[in-house]
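Please review this pair:
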Amino acid sequence: MAKYLAQIILVGAQVVGRAFMRALRQEFAASQAAADARGRAERPQSAAASRIIGISLQEAQQILNVSSLNPEEIQKNYDHLFKVNDKSVGGSFYLQSKVVRAKERLDEELRIQAKGDKEKGRKAET
């Protein structure tokens, strides 16, 4: 009787293991497809910045509540959200760190745009 019970448990574990691996492969493939689609939608430098900083441009804009890449508006919203989420005033360190990452991402996008504008200016001169 114990032998049959052990076989049933072993077969059940194998079935669950295979199902788990299949689900894991599907999730990995879906994640790769989403990353590829996101990469095609953004410029190469912008996509690289999103991967390095770990936050997309759209998410950063949502966090800081900005619709355009206006440095003054970004800085104003960053200062406000950083102060509001300070731990000493009862804020959340997690939210404060998200605000910092969003600011870093938007600053990087501004730098990428400035570099692109500078390169376009050089190409127009030649």
About this structure: Residues 2-41 form the longest helix (40 residues). The two ends are 86 Å apart (CA to CA).
